[in-house]
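Subject: Thymidylate kinase

B.,
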Amino acid sequence: MLEAPNRRPARFITFEGGEGVGKSTQVKRLLANLATQSIEAVRTREPGGTPKAEAIRSFILQGRSESWGAGAEAVLFAAARLDHVNQLIAPNLEKGTWVISDRFSDSTRAYQGLTGGVSPKLIDALEQLALDGHTPDLTIVLDMDPETAFKRVEQRAIEDGLALTGDRFEKEELDWHRRLREGFLDIARNNTDRCVVLSANQAEESLEQEIWSVVRTRFPELQAGTAA
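Prediction pasted inline below.
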């Protein structure tokens, strides 16, 4: 009997960082580069990724959970993440499809934990429940001064003719966002085996190349070469 050919392992990559640092753009660019290597990958986000998780996302970002406090929000995020992992992340990884997510559990640790004051013990318990062992293989933390990031968001809104209203977290004071930035950097410092911090204060194309270099270095099954 012929043995099935070895299948390249599926990888789970997450993007983290504060508001307006360009995560969504770089997720799309990474997917395009993976496609040049014949890597099948799905794009997702948190909170969200599944119908139930998207409903929780809408509830939170509309500010409807704000009066409940950071602890309750952490529980809601964990509930959304549990469904996300069970319905989208785990099934895709099991069938050999890479998963690229715009935010994951580090955001809860940074937003509700390090910035919101939720106890590490509760964050750890919720993370253990929701992840079920599905820790990212690589987390790319995009770092930028919050003031610079918000100027970028404002400029894009003007160019697109959109009103700058802000969601539940974008409306927080600048000092809150500075603490959030430090929260993500602290997570990266404590997880150097998984996290890579890259400056988002550069042209999208150069950041794309830097991310692609990190991904190729981390996962040797990818062919050496330049991004398309």
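The radius of gyration is 18 Å.

T.
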